[in-house]
Design goal:
68% of the residues lie in helices and 0% in strands. It is mainly α. Helix 3 packs across helix 4 (36-45) and helix 9 (106-123) runs parallel beside helix 10 (136-146). The two termini are 20 Å apart. Pathway: Purine metabolism; urate degradation; (S)-allantoin from urate: step 3/3.
Length: 177
């Protein structure tokens, strides 16, 4: 990476991302979306000229998530309502992203839990949604509507939710200067 390009970037978050050692870049971006192909594609596009260029690349590469990559990425995500354990950045992000769910009414949370069980039986995986800023009622409505999806459609919906989570988390990486 040429030093002159990194120096020309005025966004301190993008400058930091451009300057990360390869191993550090992989670690930080795997916390955003744990798909090796996606992380490597972003790594290979560095340096980024600005925030828009980085977020556009994040979005573009996340739009091609495969069904196998969905299954792999789901392994890093807790169920909605289960608190991520540990003090890692990813665990802290997860707890914050689900904070709206924790504030919901008990009857909504109970119905949500029942819906998750049904979802897991139907699709063989956890229900995943970009929960940030969404209420328990909104999440329950989303879950219930997705139960009508066929498996292929649901896989694409989950891939898109992973994309949304990745964009949100990369924003957090950029703001961590």
């Amino acid at each position: 990476m040429p030093d002159s390009t990194a120096a020309a970037v005025t966004d301190p978050g993008v400058a930091r991302v451009n300057a990360l050692a390869t191993a550090d870049f992989r670690t930080e971006f795997a916390q955003c979306l744990n798909i090796d192909r996606w992380v490597e594609a972003l790594l290979n596009e560095r340096p980024f000229s600005d925030r828009t260029a980085l977020l556009d690349a994040v979005d573009a590469h996340a739009r091609s998530i495969t069904d196998d990559e969905v299954a792999s990425a789901l392994a890093r995500h807790p169920r909605i309502g289960d608190r991520a354990s540990g003090n890692s950045t990813e665990s802290q992000w997860s707890r914050g992203e689900q904070s709206g769910f924790a504030e919901g009414a008990t009857d909504v949370q109970s119905a949500f839990h029942e819906g998750q069980v049904e979802y897991e039986k139907r699709f063989g995986q956890i229900y995943l949604v970009c929960a940030s800023g969404r209420s328990s009622e909104e999440l329950l409505a989303d879950l219930q509507s997705r139960l009508d999806n066929d498996p292929a459609t649901e896989s694409r919906v989950v891939a898109d939710e992973l994309r949304k989570i990745a964009l949100l988390r990369v924003g957090k990486v950029l703001d961590n200067t």
